[in-house]
Design brief:
Nucleotidyltransferase, domain 5; four-stranded antiparallel β-sheet; alpha+beta; disordered C terminus; single chain
């Protein structure tokens, strides 16, 4: 500003240079820049060695649609007589590519959604989970979201077959409380059989299912996942939270049920927090969108789920003359059974929709497939041996004794198995001791007595006194019939035998 002010005062470059203390050429350059309407401090463009080759670089960028590599361009320029370095070429290619993309970059129109109109779904690769045979198997995550309310649903599955897709879709529409007008998804073979002249041919089963639910399945442009960015974002977020990685420090899942619980927890988290785009909670917006959703049919679409079976009273279904177990809560209900490779899949209609409840390896008649996890609390041990009985109080005295703790329960079970005498009087004595010295001390003494097999009169009080001396538990004396405190009979062994020639 001092240079320009001096020039405006003197109207002479030499005089202004003397006043401002600069070179006259600097004054002329500043004045010329001001008259041209450009910043006076803008860098001066100087001639470069690569300037004659810039049109060729732009031609290569245009013909390759901005994808040509800089080293390839440098080889072309060297063949044309360029003597500069590859670094100079890379700078020129970077500038030309940025200018080309500025005029050819893809633009997006904001999607103005409408309640009850669109539901998008897609598949994600899930974590490794132990399968029915105990070996780690890959899983898939069915990710769906309502475009208006941003309500998400994530369902784990063992595969992406048509039967699994129909099961997940039925569970999704029942979870959100309605059916959207359109379902937007990818062009997988379960949805699109093939493309003819750019037209997607729908799978007949998915068409029948969409008619059953009163909706229409729409697929995105092939090889263009950006046309369904909502479901892509749902897949990315679900994988970031549910897949065990070093980023989220997640632990490996011990069972398929653990993965299902993790998906439910993920849904509660993302649907219960404020969404960045809408600034509202998706679960609250869902209540408004449900008024615009179509009603869900009472009966699910089961044309591809297999044959129907009734669960027997022993929680098994018979398929191919083989019994297969099911989880509790399905006795007397109708389920669908189908063969999937070397496995058999059992699907039930639960309150939340179609759910895969069991999966077994195929078997032959006479070899039933029974999952012991389907029978929790059963009195028989998996090895075939009977389990230890569970004490249940029926009188006030029994209630008072069992209230002492786990040690009292163990003492009662072991005393009954050992055939101890006068058990009820010893239980009353234990209750009296608990009132005198405390429940914790008596419970610990009863546990030690059960472990050592000490059920005689006075053993409980002796153990309590022993614990009071802070002696380690390793010094406890275990009752053992192979040892005795009685004097030995070795002295009588020589009776009637001669010793040293004498009788």
């Amino acid at each position: 500003m001092e240079i320009l002010e001096a020039f405006d005062t003197t109207r002479c470059a030499h005089s202004a240079a003397v006043l401002a203390g600069v070179d006259p050429k600097t004054v002329r350059r500043y004045v010329a820049a001001r008259e041209a309407g450009v910043p006076v401090t803008a860098p001066v463009a100087r001639a470069k060695l690569i300037d004659p080759f810039v049109p060729k670089i732009e031609e290569l960028i245009e013909s390759s649609k901005g994808k040509v590599r800089a080293d390839v361009v440098h080889e072309r320029l060297v063949a044309m007589g360029f003597t500069g370095t590859e670094r100079t070429t890379r700078r020129a290619v970077r500038a030309a590519r940025a200018a080309w993309w500025a005029g050819h970059r893809r633009t997006y129109r904001p999607w103005i959604t409408e309640p009850g109109m669109w539901l998008q779904f897609d598949w994600a690769t899930g974590p490794l989970v132990p399968g029915p045979d105990g070996r780690a198997r890959s899983t898939s995550l069915f990710c769906a979201w309502l475009a208006w309310s941003r309500f998400r649903v994530v369902i784990p599955a063992w595969d992406r077959k048509m039967e699994t897709l129909l099961t997940c879709l039925d569970a999704t529409v029942r979870r959100v409380g309605g059916v959207a007008s359109y379902l937007l998804t990818d062009n997988e073979k379960t949805v699109t059989v093939e493309h003819v002249a750019g037209v997607a041919l729908r799978h007949p089963v998915i068409v029948a299912a969409s008619r059953h639910y009163g909706t229409q399945v729409i697929t995105c442009v092939p090889y263009d996942p950006e046309s369904k960015g909502g479901s892509e974002a749902s897949v990315r977020i679900a994988k970031a939270d549910l897949l065990p990685t070093q980023v989220n420090l997640g632990e490996q899942y011990t069972s398929f049920g653990a993965l299902q619980d993790a998906c439910v927890a993920f849904e509660d988290k993302v649907n219960g927090r404020v969404h960045r785009e809408t600034a509202r909670v998706p679960a609250e917006m869902l209540t408004e969108e449900q008024a615009r959703l179509h009603p869900v049919p009472v009966a699910p679409f089961t044309a591809a789920l297999g044959v129907t079976r009734i669960v027997n009273t022993d929680q098994t279904v018979r398929f191919g003359s083989v019994r297969y177990s099911t989880p509790p809560g399905h006795v007397g209900t109708e389920v669908w059974v189908r063969i999937d490779g070397e496995e058999i899949v059992i699907v039930a209609h639960a309150r939340t929709g179609l759910v895969e409840i069991a999966r077994h390896a195929l078997s032959t008649p006479g070899c039933p497939r029974i999952n012991l996890d389907h029978y929790p609390g059963h009195p028989q041990d998996p090895s075939g041996a009977p389990k230890a009985p569970t004490p249940r109080a029926r009188t006030e005295a029994e209630t008072a004794f069992l209230a002492i703790g786990e040690g009292a329960r163990s003492w009662l079970v072991e005393a009954a198995a050992a055939g101890a005498q006068r058990v009820r009087s010893k239980m009353s004595h234990a209750v009296e001791l608990a009132a005198l010295v405390g429940l914790e001390r008596v419970d610990a003494a009863l546990g030690a007595a059960a472990a050592a097999g000490r059920f005689d009169d006075g053993d409980l009080a002796s153990i309590i006194d022993h614990h009071a001396t802070c002696a380690p538990s390793a010094q406890l004396v275990f009752a053992d019939e192979t040892h005795s405190a009685q004097p030995g009979t070795s002295a009588w062994a020589g009776l009637g035998h001669t010793t040293g020639g004498q009788r």
